[in-house]
Amino acid sequence: MGTRSFVLVMIALLGLALAGLWYWQASREYTLLVAAGQKSSQAFQLADALRKVVARHHPEIKMEVFETRGSLHNAKLLDEGAVQLATLQADQAAGSSARMVAELYPDTFQIVVRGDSGIQTISDLIGKRIALPPEQSGEFEAFWFLASYYSLTNESLRAFTGTEQTTDWLLMNGDVDALFRIRAPGDASILRLIRQVRGRVIPIPQAAALQLRHPALESGSIPQGSYNGRPAIPRSDEQTISVKQLLLAREQVPPDVVAKIASVLFEHRRELMELVPIAGQIMTPDASGQTLVPVHAGVRAFWDRDKPSFIQENAEPIALMITIAVVTTSAYLQLANRRRRKVMDGYNRELITLGQKARRAPNFPTLDECNSKLAEFVGRIVQETERGRINPSEFTLFNFTYTAVEDAINDRRIQLERQERETGGGSFDRLTAKQEAES
């Protein structure tokens, strides 16, 4: 195979490999398991809405949303690799493999009290009964972190734990005086409770001081009228603690998959809002990287989608390098062709000389010598062709010259045989001697 043919074959193979890689990437399907908390939570509803919108725009990504006990459970599942995505409160430890995808919305600490409980402030909780989320949940730990700051102990409170349905029933049945939840303002489940028990939410002040103990906590508020307009519930903006609800992905999830999910979160937010209004509060992570959890490489790829690629940024030098490479390759191929032509011309001159010698051969021994040289010459040409020093077209040209020389040998042999018959052996010998003397 000649150099030019080899280069063309390599280019063709590279093109096929790139086309195959593109097709494999484009047609590959991904299944992502999502841990999203309790079904009644806004995090679960938002994750399910994301699943639906992702299916519209990127059908190759299959998302399955699972109900869990909450943030702590989600973090454990994500860290163990049981799921690829998870919703998580920012105040919970995420694990070393967790990476940020988006800030979904701000959750707030909310203490709902019955209208007949007499509870106006956190201090009034002393001696009261309060319903808490399940033990080993993020909300359960968040309450006791808050309680320790306000010097509320397990002895000063009568705490009951259970699922959301159980604790709702305890409050509505009058078995507890208050209930603690971490939900976004205006949450439908809290609105339903307030209406059924003629309840309200009480303020949770000193958020800035609490942030000194836990940087993930922030100052927040429950806006006036979040749960009722007339009369307004709450009557004014209530101070509280805010914590961001995050969407995290394992570091091992391919960046191109996370980039597609990010495109849905930030470019198709209106579609998400039609399913879950709180999706309007979705925010991108801090691009500077000053986040509690490292940002996923796929989100950075989404940020950089409009930036010129390396090839675009370096188009001129790359074009110059390609031009130099093409010119160099072309010059090399031309030089190689010249060398091959020079070698081939030498072989053809040898053949022509051999043919001339065969036509003037004075006797059979000389003619046999020419025939042996021709056979040896053919062996050399075949070896040169196998080594790639002679291409098929050049070999065809040699074959034409070889045939001409072979014909010259055969013609001369016929002539010598005719002369031998006409002159006889002795006469022929004298004629041969005379021809040798003349030559």
Describe the structure in your own words.
The protein is of the alpha/beta class. It has 2 domains: 71-307, D-Maltodextrin-Binding Protein, domain 2 (3-Layer(aba) Sandwich); 315-438. The chain is 54% helix and 16% strand. The protein has 14 helices and 12 strands. Strands 1, 2, 3, 4, 5, 6, 7, 8, 9 and 12 form a 10-stranded mixed beta sheet that branches. α8 packs across α10 (297-303), α12 (315-359) runs parallel beside α14 (392-438) and α13 (364-386) packs antiparallel against α14. The radius of gyration is 44 Å and the shape is rod-shaped.
Keyword list:
439 residues, D-Maltodextrin-Binding Protein, domain 2, single chain, alpha/beta, ten-stranded mixed β-sheet
CATH level 4 superfamily of the largest domain: Periplasmic binding protein-like II
Enumerate the spans where pLDDT stays under 50 for 5 or more consecutive residues: 426-431
**Element-level helix/strand string:** HEHEHEEEHEHEHEHEEEEHHHHHHH
State the oligomer.
Answer: single chain
CATH A-level architecture of the largest domain: 3-Layer(aba) Sandwich
Choose one word for the global shape.
rod-shaped
State the name of the first-level CATH class of the largest domain: Alpha Beta
CATH fold group of the largest domain: D-Maltodextrin-Binding Protein, domain 2
Q: Termini distance?
A: 45 Å
